[in-house]
Each structure stands twice: as structure tokens, then as C-alpha cells.
Write a structure and sequence with these properties.
Strand order of the largest sheet: 1-2-3
Shape: globular
Distance between the termini: 19 Å
CATH topology: Nucleotidyltransferase, domain 5
Length: about 110
């Protein structure tokens, strides 16, 4: 999993891209890349825009958060039964704690 965001604080900033691979038994089973409009347009860090390479105008063309949320849930539901406590994903990635924090906050928002 990897994210691009509008800043470094998951409580204030938002995900603008979310990329995921589903790996099952060492094989890539599926992938997803979402481009998501920020929920909070007032706290977009200019430094974050330099890092992720997006402009505010480009962000306006991304999926609204509710659309992206629906796509994410549909994707994740293909491989895990969310009603089965024993059937879960294990997140992985570089500095994955950062990405998990943003993903959790996105799902709450």
C-alpha cells in the first residue's frame, strides 16, 4: 500500500492517491489505484503538492471521496469477508504506519 497526501498530519490532511496490491500466497492477485479529491481543501500543504506533483486544478478532477470510498470497499471485499473476524488483510509497504494512519482517517471521514 502507498499513499500520496496533502500533508503529513493524517488528522488534518487527506489522501489524494491510494495504491494497493493484493498478494495471495506470494502472487499478486489484484491491484487498485485511486485518485481522490481532498475532503479538506483549506489545509493543503504547498510542500506536499511539490512532492506529489499535483496541482489544485488536477485534484478537482479526481474522484470525490464518497466515490473513491465505494471503489475501495468493493475492491477489498473481493478477497476478504469483512464480517469474518479471522479473515483480514495485513498491510505492508515502506513506512506503512504513515499510510495506515491516513487510510484509517479517510475511512472515518
Amino acid at each position: 500500500m502507498d499513499t500520496e497526501t496533502t500533508g503529513l498530519d493524517y488528522k488534518v490532511h487527506d489522501i489524494v492517491t491510494l495504491a494497493m496490491l493484493i498478494e495471495i500466497d506470494g502472487e499478486i492477485a489484484d491491484s487498485l489505484e485511486l485518485r481522490i479529491q481532498p475532503i479538506n481543501w483549506d489545509d493543503i500543504s504547498e510542500e506536499a503538492l511539490k512532492v506529489n506533483g499535483f496541482t489544485r486544478e488536477q485534484l478537482k478532477t479526481f474522484d470525490p471521496p464518497k466515490v473513491a470510498h465505494a471503489k475501495l470497499i468493493k475492491f477489498l471485499s473481493r478477497y476478504v469477508n469483512r464480517y469474518n473476524r479471522a479473515d483480514k488483510y495485513q498491510p505492508a509497504g515502506y513506512n506503512v504506519g504513515f499510510d495506515v494512519g491516513f487510510l484509517g482517517e479517510f475511512l472515518k471521514k
